[in-house]
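Problem: given the chain below (594 residues), write out its structure.
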Amino acid sequence: MSIQNDIDAAPPGGTVNVPPGTYNEQIIIDKPLTLSGPTPPLGEAIIDASGLIADTATIHILANDVVVENLTLQNGPGQGIRAGDTTFTNLTGIIIRNNIIRDHDRAGVLTANSASMQVEDNTIVDNGKMIGFQRTGVYLYPHGESSVRRNIIKNNFGDGIFARESNSGLLIEDNKIEDHTNSGITLAWDEINVTIRNNEISDCGQGNFDEQGGIVIIQSMAENITGNTIQNCNRSGIFWGWTPTSGPPPPQILIAGNTIDGSARDAIYLFSMGPGGWIPADPFPLEPDVLDNRLLNSGRAGVYVSYFYYYSPGNAKPTIHNNTILGNMEYGVFNGTAAEVDATNNWWGSSSGPFHPVSNPEGSGDPVSDRVLFSPWLTLPPPQGIACLVMEKVYDQCYSEDVVVKTFAIPAEILSACNNNGPGSIDRLDCAIVTAQCSVVDVGPPLNDNQRSVTVQQKFKIRIDLINERANPPIVLSFDTPLDHFHSQALLDVPPPGAIFGPAGGPFVSCQVVSSACLCKLETPPPGETITKVICTVKMCKIIEVSAFVKLLVPHMGYCTPEPCHVPPHQEEIECPPIDELFPSGPPLNAGGT
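Solution.
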């Protein structure tokens, strides 16, 4: 079988399915097409490109709307997959997914002609074996709007991902990037409009070049660097030198929620070129918001703001808040520039704050240099993460204690049995709540904003024991009797249904009985008449709650307790005396059900 022959024969927009096996050929795709290997249970389709002409891509895409999936590409003398050339530029709709791309002399995936690509769920390993350029896992130079997501990118010679000279938009997300000679991710020479989030980057950078480490940014811009874990990188976890050569500064540069641990030199290194040097200054200073990161165990500094990077003076000015800065060898924050850096409200590893020989000599946390504003500082470490959780949110809740008094007729058969025992045989009554239920029967229209009248119904079953103190056992007879159709109302905030509640729907209004108790006594009839009725007083405590399932950013958990219910207008409040007045003997409360 020849894969290329099948591609040539396929109609535009068709699919070419590659059976399991090993193929030795170059593939050129010059029409909209899906090229698909088998899914793993059905075998492996391997395109082994060894022996092809030097610098030849194993698969070369020269058309829009091309999908390459479920293939193993290996041993090519050029790139694993190349999109575009000098004739076919600005290609769109290219998807590269679920492939294994390994052991190529050049990049695993390349566009040098502004193609837009989605590179997703691939394993890209051991590429860049030959000396020269393009020795990376994914090389975008330049590119259209692209994303690199959920890939394993490991042990490619130069960089895991390299991007330069593009402003079309680049998302680098959820990748596992390990063991690269230069960096996990490099942005260079006016690469802007980039988001780097939720990647795991480790063991990147060899040698003593400054521009090495986990994430390296040279004269470029990543507006959003969030949620990444960067471990054991040399020299920096994040190295950023110079801003782009033109354009206004973005509304915000955010470096937030990252964990950077074990960098050989600095967790974060920052430099931008200020005026007064022998080359032109950057068009704007580098001023990122460094928030909620964990900057740990670096060989030099947690954050190093440099004055000198070959061309002085530097004018980077980060804002550094709510970070954990701990275990860094020389400095928690070092500022070499002339301006003061705001590093307040950080945790420095000690409640005594960071050490500064003049401003805080008693501080036992990571040291800070001069021109670092560090007071006030956090005296407890901040939460270690913020999660987006689907959870039940309580919008409103309240409790109320209600009392109901009701007279019950003693069942005829019970009454007959008692009378057969003779007058005075019953000394007293005991009672217990067998079941206690509370349910919402109506939610009214909005009265004020989202406040609504919630009507609930309580139902009880009471067990009454007739006691003869002189008998053994003392309980002569027992009977159960219901107490139904007891209603009450409360005003609660009940938002209208809507998309904010997600697929689980909502809001939900519920009622729960949390405790209940009863006291019963025989009625006192006129002289000479038989006792036929029992008078019972029931006291109960219930909680009414409004909730819905929503997505929330949750930095930590806490506890909440309800306030007393407010009743609707013009409704008489139910009398609720203290429990010791209702039950002078102080009987224990009996737990009710829901």
